[in-house]
Amino acid sequence: MNPHDESESFRCVRADAREPEGYRRVLGEAKAAFLHTDPPYCLLTRRRKGGDLRDPRAHKKIDRDPIVRFETVRDYRAFTEAWMTRAVAHLTPDAPLAIWTNLLGKEPILAVARSLGYGHLRGEFVWGKRTTDKNANEQLLRVYEVALVLSRTPAPVLAPGDAPTVWAVVGGYDDDGEAQRWGGHPHHKPFSVVEPLVRTWSRPGDWVLDPFAGSGSMPAAALRLGRKAACLEVVPEWAERVAGRLRETAAPSPR
Ligand SMILES: C[S@@+](CC[C@H](N)C(=O)[O-])C[C@H]1O[C@@H](n2cnc3c(N)ncnc32)[C@H](O)[C@@H]1O
After folding, report:
1. The DNA methylase N-4/N-6 domain covers which part of the protein (predicted)?
2. Assessment of whether the complete model's pTM goes beyond 0.85
3. Which of 163, 185, 231, 245 would be a feasible disulfide site paired with 216, CB 3.0-4.6 Å?
């Protein structure tokens, strides 16, 4: 891959987001204008009384399973520090961050971002995930994942004629059928859920960086909206799948 080929609209490689190599391969000397990412969530290792692991999947290596578990929240903070320090070195100084997390991951992510100079929490973008729990008069939404939007500078004051920023969206896990098409990643997000973030926090032609691509919901949305997508993913099967998805998004074949 030639990192200086201006005609490329996406680059995605198999790489560990805690290491510098992947970022260099996808961005070269270019800087991304928006970090939009969905890192592993702060899920803790499950143990039986007495300390034995409760979930045999926790024995699996990271390159076999997209779910990662951490022993403590402090370990999660160390993981966050390792990847975020690398990632922000490849951003323009005014690039905002939109980082998806489960509720337990919010504090460690905010603390690391603050320590790296992203002291302004512009807001929390909430996904009300439609559940199957409903009756004729009621539909239950579940909030499991939110995106924290951070910047180095405070929000400008809105003029009366300015459009408001969108801070909430409602949608199901696979409203657009893309999860089913691309492997059913447990943390897939439909286009309608990530679209407001991409539109609000980046411009067409910008590089958008996602160091944790999974099945590629963030980079695919960036491409659909005329941005350029740079992404990493450590699990080989997912890295391959996301590359295929982005090839198709960049040059859709008739279906
Ligand atoms: C929350 S999921 C991302 C889901 C994605 N947004 C989607 O739509 O499918 C996190 C992803 O990060 C990957 N991952 C875990 N540790 C990583 C690391 N150190 N470097 C790069 N990717 C990693 C996992 O394999 C997983 O696919």
Report:
1. 35-237
2. yes
3. 245
